[in-house]
Amino acid sequence: MVTQTPDTGSTVRSASGRAEWVPDVLGDDYQRTTIPLGTDPDGEGQIEATLVRFRPANSRPASAGPVLYIHGRSDYFFQRHVAEYFAERGYAFYALDLRKCGRSTRPGQTPHYVTNFAYYDRELDEAMRIIRGESAGAPVLLVAHSTGALTVSLWMNRKNRSSAGHGVSGMILNSPFFDLPGPAYLRSIVLTAFIEGAGWLRSHSEIPRTSGDDAYGASIHSSLRGEWDYDLDWKPLGGYPVQFGWLRAVRRAHKAVQRGLDVGVPTLILRSKLSSRAKQFGDEIDVVDAVLDVTQIQRWAGCLGDRTTVVPITGARHDVLLSAAKPRAKAFAEIGNWLDWLHTYLDEADT
């Protein structure tokens, strides 16, 4: 079970620009540093991101390189078991709470609100600079969930086309958010045009919510039917409200993926075998993706470019790595197999 305690302390950065690490809410072996981002282009004041690292006591030097984990929407990094898995395999583990998310949320700001996914490039670039600076320039393995997977796919496409390169060895995407689930009319030309207009004219207006949006949250949080304890202020059971401006940014990001990207590195995609749009909690919620449509994930996976491997996990939840014990173990086994392949592939590419 994951447990944590509140922490209202602030983090500073040294005058030299080097990251200064302070204790994190996850307790022993976890530290965090703040990444100042200046004025919010979406007009909500000064913003910052938060980079977390896992440094277990008496740990061996990281021989496999660094990992950077990026959360999804209405989410933040709390998954100790994920950090421990990668550390046991010899990785130096880091996780990034994006602007206005989790540790990076500040009073008066709209949680997770952004009107252009390219804005996230700033914290991703700076996180990579810090990580590679602490890892002798070793390439970074990206691990991302849901909207975070959409975010890093677009970022990788932009970096792969730039002269500076990306410094990434591969990606593991956990239920990537590549399309809008639900009835076909939600993806129609008419509704897409409406979202575009509303996102421009009423960007902060919230989209009406439906009842039962907390069924997935109920399946994972320890206060109800789950085994995971996390901060409900940072990850509400029913998620944060969605604004038209954010949804417009998402639909534009979806279009970019569906036109085809070139991320430039091998990618492993994990997803549940089945989806369900059930709004009430029941046993079914525990063994399906109750958030996204897995057929959409499968459909658009090939649009990333390079080598993409898709592995359906029977009995997995939306966050595959928060599934029940058996499918979770299967997912980690698949990750291990793919990492073994990736190391061989990269070694052969260097010869």
UniProtKB/TrEMBL annotation:
GO terms for molecular function: hydrolase activity. SUPFAM superfamilies: alpha/beta-Hydrolases. PANTHER family: PHOSPHOLIPASE-RELATED. It comes from Antrihabitans stalactiti. Residues 65-271 form the Serine aminopeptidase S33 domain. Keywords: Hydrolase. The keyword Electron transport does not apply. It holds the Pfam family Hydrolase_4. The keyword Transmembrane does not apply. This is Alpha/beta hydrolase.
